[in-house]
Design goal:
With 447 residues, the protein is an alpha+beta fold. Helices cover 40% and strands 21% of the residues. It has three domains: 232 residues, D-Maltodextrin-Binding Protein, domain 2; 96 residues, Periplasmic binding protein-like II (D-Maltodextrin-Binding Protein, domain 2); 90 residues, no CATH class. Strands 2-1-3-10-4-11 form a six-stranded mixed sheet, sandwiched between helices. The chain has a five-stranded mixed sheet with strand order 7-6-8-5-9, sandwiched between helices.
């Protein structure tokens, strides 16, 4: 079945939205307005958006410029990267944050319309692709990608998760153009479609899969980390803005770096702040942004991420969303290098923390880390009324997930969690005697 209305909807994603508010970084000699586009609920971007805004670091750095200019920061919140790109190419947003595929569209549209943009930093990333997930309803009988053949799948065309969906289907031998019906929908609309039964599965980026799982409205069908290909979100700036006001961009990047330090040093407090600003449950925010969360926050533009961008160009071209994109020309980290100074090289070489099992006790401002999932289960079993949230990493991909939503496998004395049924089955197929058990059984065995 050919997907319907995708071409028209994809084209609409790229049209300038002149009705949106915001002004470019312009003004008289004493007053300048800087407009920042961000996605409050896409919590992989919080160090350049929601958390940065709540901490006020950008405004503080602008005030410290002491250049005789009064700066006003306008924050524009959007659901996806597409409207941010539209506003940037219209000269109405100066700095924006979005996912890897939207970043490429941002680059292409900027060049096409004579408003070139530059990738200046990264917000959060996952080197295996765990930021994107495909989910189904809790009572769905679908258990694998192969089961999606002939089904309706909701996603956001041109988004990072759309790339994950296309790649995953292709690896499973499913033609994303012919064998499924793709519904091009905003994340909230897709979540409603899944609940209403008008979509059989939902492919979305942070924080939607975790939110729906936490609320008991979805279960994981596919963990994006199975692709083993980096996904990330980054910060893009208009080239003319960066060249005209480099000190302002550097102030933003310094503020982003300080916000990153705050998030990494105070992960629970950061999750609470983001939750308050977005109305997302703090437990969901922490799943992605916590000390061992799915996302690693680091502003440097790592070579692995640039390589992934280059691999993504072919998918966007095949979907007729872009022509060729010169990724090397798009990446411009000299502003960040100047902002971070000697610390840049150390940050660039940094690697993600090792996956770990973690418990967030009720009424606590810190979490507890455990060496194995079995140790975490034993603790949860011993404190049935004292746990706010428990997280475990997938035994093969390392993707963090809620312990009570994971697929549990017993293998001798080992109790192993998996995000998706497919990764659990793959383990069982390689280990005689291993089998799936319920979460309740896993708790009992651990205790």
């Amino acid at each position: 079945m050919k997907r319907t209305a995708v071409a028209v909807s994809a084209a609409l994603l790229l049209l300038p939205l002149g009705a949106c508010g915001g002004t470019s970084a312009a003004g008289d000699d004493t007053t300048v307005t800087v407009t920042v586009g961000y996605q409050s609920k896409t919590i992989n971007t919080v160090t350049a958006g929601t958390l940065l805004r709540s901490l006020g670091y950008f405004e503080r750095h602008l005030a410290s410029l002491d250049d005789g200019v009064t700066y006003k920061v306008v924050w524009e919140d959007h659901a996806t990267g597409a409207p941010i790109t539209a506003q940037m190419t219209a000269g109405k947003i100066d700095i924006g944050s979005m996912g890897d595929f939207p970043l490429l569209i941002n680059a292409a549209r900027g060049e096409e319309l004579g408003r070139p943009t530059k990738l200046v930093s990264v917000t959060g990333y996952n080197l295996r692709g765990g930021l994107n997930t495909i989910v189904t309803t809790p009572d769905s009988t679908l258990t694998s990608l192969e089961d999606l053949r002939g089904r309706k799948i909701s996603t956001s065309v041109g988004s990072a998760v759309d790339g994950t969906l296309v790649r995953a289907l292709q690896r499973a031998g499913i033609d994303p153009e012919q064998d499924i019906e793709k519904l091009n929908q905003q994340p909230a609309v897709g979540a409603s479609a899944l609940a209403a039964g008008s979509a059989d599965a939902l492919a979305q980026f942070v924080a939607w899969p975790g939110l729906l799982a936490h609320e008991g409205k979805a279960k994981v069908l596919y963990d994006g980390a199975q692709l083993d290909l980096p996904t990330f979100h980054g910060v893009t700036a208009r080239k003319d803005f960066a060249e005209d006001r480099p000190a302002v961009l550097e102030a933003f990047l310094k503020a982003q770096d300080e916000t990153t330090d705050y998030l990494n040093t105070h992960p629970v407090a950061a999750a609470e702040k983001v939750a308050e600003a977005t109305d997302l449950p703090a437990e969901v925010v922490y799943l992605y942004n916590g000390a061992h969360g799915i996302s690693t926050f680091d502003p440097t533009v790592k070579p692995q991420l640039v390589s992934a961008l280059k691999q993504n160009v072919s998918l966007l071209k095949a979907a007729q969303l872009t022509d060729d994109v010169d990724v090397d020309a798009f990446v411009e980290d000299r502003y960040l290098r100047k902002a971070l100074g000697a610390a840049y090289a150390e940050r660039l070489a940094a690697t993600p923390p090792d996956p770990a099992s973690e418990v967030w006790p009720k009424d606590a401002g810190t979490t507890e880390t455990f060496g194995t999932p079995r140790e975490l289960l034993a603790h949860v079993a011993a404190h049935p009324d004292g746990i706010r949230a428990a997280y475990v990493p997938d035994a093969t991909t390392g993707t963090l997930w809620f312990a009570d939503k994971a697929v549990w496998v017993v293998d001798g004395e080992k109790l192993l969690p998996f995000v998706a049924p497919a990764t659990a089955r793959a383990y069982i197929d390689r280990h005689d005697g291993a089998r799936v058990i319920t979460y309740a059984d896993a708790l009992e065995r651990a205790s």
